[in-house]
Amino acid sequence: MSKMPTRDRLVDAAIVRFYKEGFRNVGLDQIIADVGISKTAFYKHFSSKDELLLAALDEKAKWLSGICREIVWEKGGGTAEGQLRAVFDLIEFILAQDEFQGCIFVRAAMEFPNPNDPIFQAAAANRQILEGFVHRLAENCQIADAETLARKLCLIAEGAYVMQHVTGNNRTIEYARSLANLAIDEALGQAGFAKAAATK
């Protein structure tokens, strides 16, 4: 079995450190020590800690994009509504991760709050992955205001991230799913009403 490339090892080590301890609390020397390389070797792959941070955010974004599709298609079955509701199976999966420490993108945006900072911009863009995905699922359900529903569901999801991280309450996903289903039911009801009115 071939050894994982050094760049990938650095990114993985950075994700673990940044996620558990925060971005500003972690020194570059700590990550280099975790990987077991020299600073010279590090600078062959990244020019700075910030560049490594951006790579770590990008890697988490790729992971989230893949897991979104995998879980929603698996749990949602063949219906648009089932897939929309399965978004909270995805959230349940994320909350159940042993290393769960909240949303890494929100954390990055909070630690680098300047809107002109490339790290803030990357975090904000990557945070939109879930919202865009939910938006498309809502559109598949013929929901007229898919954007509003997507934002509501993502707000519920982010609230669940915070509650789980702060309280460790094992019923967090139950509460979140209940709120999400109410929002979905309301949106589907409005869509059905509009469709019925259009056929009269």
Automatic annotation (TrEMBL):
DNA-binding region as annotated in the record: 27-46
Gene3D superfamilies linked to this entry: Tetracycline Repressor, domain 2
GO molecular function: DNA binding
Keyword Transcription: yes
InterPro entries: Homeodomain-like_sf, HTH_TetR, Tet_transcr_reg_TetR-rel_C_sf
Coiled-coil parts of chain: none
Keyword annotations of the record: DNA-binding, Transcription, Transcription regulation
Domain HTH tetR-type, first and last residues per copy: 4-64
Keyword Transcription regulation: yes
The protein's name in its UniProt record: HTH tetR-type domain-containing protein
Organism: Blastopirellula marina
